[in-house]
Design a protein that fits this description.
Layout lengths: L1 E4 L69 H22 L9 H4 L10 E4 L4 E3 L7 E5 L20 E8 L2 E8 L3 H9 L13 H16 L15 E5 L2 E5 L6 E5 L5 E6 L15 E2 L6 E6 L5 E7 L9 E4 L10 E2 L3 E6 L2 E3 L2 H4 L5 E3 L6 E6 L9 E4 L5 E10 L4 E10 L13 E10 L5 E5 L11 E5 L11 E6 L8 E6 L5 E5 L4 E3 L3 E4 L8 E9 L4 E8 L5 E6 L10 E5 L14 E4 L1
Antiparallel strand pairs: 1-35, 2-6, 3-33, 4-5, 4-34, 5-6, 7-8, 8-9, 9-10, 11-12, 12-13, 13-14, 15-16, 16-19, 17-18, 19-20, 21-22, 22-23, 23-24, 25-26, 26-27, 27-28, 29-31, 30-31, 31-32, 32-33
Helix pairs in contact: 1-4
Protein name: Putative 9-cis-epoxycarotenoid dioxygenase
Family: Belongs to the carotenoid oxygenase family.
Cofactor: Fe(2+)
Length: 596
């Protein structure tokens, strides 16, 4: 269904009793169950409540309670739905009688500033301390998980519905808005009035997880759910390519967004590159700054191979290259150089049989050898790939890679995480993410690595989400801007790292203040580190959020923008310059067609 409406009228109803933002906080005022491991290090360090009222819906939607918006079922479907609902309630009741893993307990995973927020229409003329740099004109977009409905049982912080936060900067004037991405999954759950798709990490665990899958696919077979329209949450990153803003997660197609003249966010719909895309794509596609091409991967949790392909600057898709692996493998990120793509085949794999043993299907397989594949960018098959073993290496994110022909090496910069699967499974050992330079010799197939940042008192700083100058992706870079992921998974500050000397410049957010990914916006035709860093920061004492803008050279705060509502900790974002947003009605008022 498609409809045309003024962008300002687009909204989501928050008055349904299952909606998280209607519940108040903590979650429906239920007692917190103890988890298996009482030594919880991460999110519970926050006070349990952001102390912001959710007793009133902030946005209403005229058609949200209309009869036409509810599922229209025949008698057979009604009977099947009733049986499955009763069975699912029994599953939930049984699961909630047992201690939940802390990686799946919603009272851990959405505590404090991970707790979801309602949509916020555009608020303009925000108060600013300092001066917004004149060269910053455009919109900063950051994605993240924000569950609309209360989790029925297990929940992981990566499971939530995608919500994009937008800060528009126009000649020093700043506005803010946040909106759910209207995924097909969210639209179907809105009709049902509750969460009905299984949570990929939080719920698909052990025998109960298998039963949830059976319920899910039975609903699909009965026509209660339509899986042909996708089941992704579009909550990981935002990419600007070929004039389009895309919200991306790796289990589905991207979703196209538009920015309205006043800075609001509109979901256009699920985007398949004009019918060319027939599989999911990576949440971290790479855009070559010189060619303008977009390179990406696609993996499937049930198949022992991945696909590699790319798009021309005009959006024309290449043939797919199948890259065969020894097991279905998680490939969250990868890297490109001027002439190669670096493909990680690491030791975090998918094994559905582990659910039969009562465990998670996402596991660390110590018997599998970690390796990186170096493939020429424009290969038409996998025959030219060079595999190099990379022992004890698991990188969740890569920051850059480049070639050094004088030594026949490809240099990769990434953060190596230990324990490798600790994001998904409980581990006694605290998570560390260490910045490494990794060298892959294309002739000898030897692998070496060095920690870039020196230890302090026997500890190495955990550095995670961040980036290098995006105009130098695939080329040798000197600096990286990264989040200080301490205490994990919170971010207490950001650093500028000299990748050659290991020198670190650090900006701390302050006591009880935490942020997220630092996004570096480079100036044009200047030195590599000349530009500005943007990051959301939240004060957990007041539960107020702000946008900080820092100088990329010395990390001096240039401006602080006070935001009208709390911004939960999220994932990845981008900045789109105003001159590139002309196709998004940047300067003229117009209506936008929204495909539901």
């Amino acid at each position: 269904m498609s409809m045309t409406m003024a962008p300002s009228s687009i909204s989501i109803n928050f008055t349904h009793p299952s909606s998280l933002v209607y519940l108040g906080h903590p979650l429906n005022n239920k007692p917190i169950r103890k988890t298996k491991n009482t030594n919880i290090q991460c999110i519970l360090h926050s006070p349990n409540s952001p102390k912001q009222p959710y007793n009133k819906p902030l946005i209403t939607n005229e058609d949200s309670d209309s009869t036409n918006n509810k599922p229209q079922w025949n008698p057979f479907q009604k009977a099947v739905a009733s049986i499955l609902d009763k069975f699912e309630r029994a599953l939930n009741s049984r699961e909630l009688q047992q201690p939940l893993r802390k990686t799946a307990d919603p009272r851990v995973q959405i505590s404090g500033n991970y707790f979801p927020v309602p949509e916020r229409p555009v608020v303009e003329s925000l108060p600013i301390t300092g001066t917004v740099p004149e060269s910053l004109n455009g919109v900063y977009l950051r994605n993240g998980a924000n569950p609309m409905f209360e989790p029925l049982a297990g929940y992981h912080l990566f499971d939530g519905d995608g919500m994009v936060h937008a800060v528009k900067i126009n000649n020093g004037n700043v506005s803010y808005a946040c909106r759910f991405t209207r995924t097909e999954r969210l639209l179907q759950e809105r009709k049902h009035g509750r969460a009905i798709f299984p949570k990929a990490i939080g719920e698909l665990y052990g025998h109960i997880g298998i039963l949830r899958l059976i319920v899910f696919y039975t609903r699909a077979l009965a026509g209660i759910l339509d899986l042909r329209r996708g089941n992704g949450v579009a909550n990981v990153s935002v990419v600007f390519f070929n004039g389009k803003i895309l919200a991306v997660s790796e289990e589905d197609f991207p979703y196209e967004l538009q920015i309205t003249p006043d800075g609001d966010i509109v979901t256009v719909g699920r985007y398949n590159f004009d019918g060319q895309l027939n599989c999911a794509m990576s949440a971290h596609p790479k855009i070559d700054p010189e060619s303008g091409e977009l390179f990406t991967l696609s993996y499937d949790f049930s198949k022992s191979y991945m696909k590699y392909f790319w798009f021309s600057p005009e959006g024309k898709k290449s043939p797919e290259v199948d890259i065969h692996l020894s097991a279905p493998t998680m490939v969250h990120d990868f890297a490109i150089t001027e002439n190669f793509v670096v493909i990680p085949d690491q030791q975090v794999v998918f094994n559905i049989s582990e659910m039969l043993k009562g465990g998670s299907p996402v596991i660390y397989d110590g018997s599998k050898k970690s390796r990186f594949g170096i493939l020429p960018k424009y290969s038409t098959d996998e025959s030219s790939i060079i595999w190099i073993e990379t022992p004890n290496t698991f990188c969740f994110h890569f920051w850059n890679a480049w070639e050094e022909p004088e030594t026949n090496e490809v240099v990769v910069i990434g953060s190596c995480m230990t324990p490798p699967d600790s994001i998904f499974n409980e581990r006694e050992e605290g998570l560390k993410s260490v910045l490494y330079e990794m060298r892959l010799n294309l002739k000898s197939c030897k692998f070496t690595r060095r920690s870039i940042v020196q230890e302090v008192n026997g500890e190495v700083m955990s550095l995670e989400v961040g980036m290098v100058n995006r105009n130098r992706i695939g080329r040798k870079t000197r600096f990286a801007y990264l989040a200080v992921a301490e205490p994990w998974p919170k971010v207490s500050g950001l650093v500028k790292v000299d990748l050659v000397t290991g020198e670190v410049k650090r900006h701390n957010y302050g006591d009880g203040r935490f942020g997220g990914e630092p996004f570096f916006v480079p100036e044009e035709n200047v030195k590599e580190d000349e530009g500005y860093i943007m990051a959301f920061v939240t004060d957990e004492k007041t539960w107020k959020s702000e946008l900080q803008i820092l100088n990329g050279v010395d990390l001096k705060v240039e401006a602080t923008v006070k935001l009208p509502s709390r911004v939960p900790y999220g994932l990845h974002g981008t900045f789109v310059e105003a001159k590139k947003l002309l196709g998004h009605a940047w300067d003229t008022k117009e209506k936008v067609e929204v495909k539901n």
